[in-house]
User: Fold this.
Amino acid sequence: MRPLLVVCGWIDKINLTIGKIVGWCVLIAVLVSAVNASVRYVFDASSNAWLELQWYLFSAVFLLCASYTHLRNEHIRIDILNNLLSRRTKTWIDIFGGLLFLLPMTVIIGYLSLDMVADSIARDEQSSNAGGLVRWPVKILIPIGFFLLTAQGLSEVIKRIGFLMGVGPDPAELAKPQGAHPPDSNSPDPKQEPVHG
Assistant:
């Protein structure tokens, strides 16, 4: 199990780095949007390329930061129900959810996107909008994003199994940024060993 946890650490570092870098695309998209809107209103001019660049930047953030969001344990949950469950039950739900839903979906979508991307590259697909951008670079982000999310999904499942086996810390606790979440009064001290049973 420990060698798998080492691999999980590598996956986590890669997705953490990508998430922090790609997160800057949000600022770039806002600046592009502001410049595009200003030029449109001040000079009565517009460019489909600038508008599509905003979409491409948003696509990059959505596809490449999904794995970062999963690493940080910030994906959507039903908190009213989730807060009523024990740490162990939450961990089992995360394992089964990852194995039965997340991983099959990411593998299938990633695999099905490969032919579309290959076709787009082979045809040097261009935007159908006048003055638009080349389409294949943004389409490449689909299999890359789903590969990263698959890797992170595997990492999260392995780390949670390690936690239940007592060979690793609770990944849900480690993912929380300091001061970002109020302490859960029902949660044990994250430094304590997990209770087996």
Observations:
- Residues 179-197 have pLDDT under 50 and may be disordered.
- Residues 87-122 form the longest helix (36 residues).
- The chain has one domain: 2-175.
- The two ends are 19 Å apart (CA to CA).
